C-alpha cells in the first residue's frame, strides 16, 4: 500500500469515528468501527483510543517485502457533540458495506460526507412539539391535573425550541442548560400565577425532563462497565455538569421570585 493511500485510509477511518462520536456514539462502537475499517485494507497493527473529546489512532502496515513499515498516528479533537443516533446507525452500516463490498476510498469518503451533511431526522419544530408531549404526559405520573398537563405542554415546547436554537448557534452545553433551566422556572411561575390549580413544582419537573442528559448517563455507565474508565468518567462528569446547570438556572429564578415577589 502506497504512503498516500495509507494516509487516505487513516483519514477515512478517523472521519467515520468523528461522525459517530459527535452524534452520540458509544466509545466501544467508535473504536470497533475504526479498527474494522483499517484492518479491511490490510493494516496489521491498529490501536485506537477514543474519549468523548478526542480520537487517537496508531497503525502500522508492512511494506511489499513484508518488513514493518513506519508507524502512523492521527489525532482528532472533538469539540461539539449532539445526539443524532441516525447518523451513528448510518456510519455503522457504511463500515460494514465498506468491508464487505470493497468500496474504494473515494466512494467511502463520498458516502461519509453525505452522512455528515444529511439533515436531522426531525425539524426543530417537531422536536419542540414532541418535547412538550413527553413533558406533559410525564407529569401525569405525578398526579397532574388537566391545567398542569396543558401548562407543561405549552411551556416545554417553548423551552425545547429555545435550547435547540442555542445548540444550533454552538453555545456551550452549560450555557444552554442554564438558560433552559431558568426559562423553565420563569414560565412555570408565570403559569402558576395565572391559575391557583397549576402547581409550579410539577410544571418545572416536566419541563426539565427534556433536558436530562439520559444518553450521557447511559453511555457513561456502559463505558465504565466495559472498562473504558476515562470515557466513562468523562461522560459522567458531562452529565453532572449539565445537571448542575439545570439546577442552577431553576434555583436562581426561584430565588429571585421568592426575594422580589414573595413566592413560596
Structure description:
This protein is mainly alpha-helical. The protein folds into two domains: 3-117, Pantoate--beta-alanine Ligase, Chain: A,domain 2 (2-Layer Sandwich); 124-261, no CATH class. Helices cover 68% and strands 8% of the residues. The chain is built from ten helices and three strands, in the order H-H-E-E-E-H-H-H-H-H-H-H-H. The protein has helices at residues 3-22, 27-39, 85-101, 105-117, 124-140, 146-168, 173-194, 200-208, 214-225, 229-261; strands at residues 45-51, 54-60, 72-77. Strands 1-2-3 form a three-stranded antiparallel beta sheet. Helix 5 packs across helix 8 (200-208), helix 6 packs parallel to helix 8 (200-208) and helix 9 (214-225) packs antiparallel against helix 10 (229-261). The longest helix is centred in the C-terminal third of the chain and has 33 residues, at 229-261. The chain crosses the membrane at residues 174-194, 200-218, 239-260. It comes from Isachenkonia alkalipeptolytica. It is a multi-pass membrane protein. GO terms for molecular function: transmembrane transporter activity. Keywords: Cell membrane, Membrane, Transmembrane, Transmembrane helix.
Secondary structure topology:
Blueprint: H1 3-22, H2 27-39, E1 45-51, E2 54-60, E3 72-77, H3 85-101, H4 105-117, H5 124-140, H6 146-168, H7 173-194, H8 200-208, H9 214-225, H10 229-261
Antiparallel strand pairs: 1-2, 2-3
Helix pairs in contact: 1-2, 1-3, 1-4, 2-3, 3-4, 5-6, 5-8, 6-7, 6-8, 7-8, 7-10, 9-10
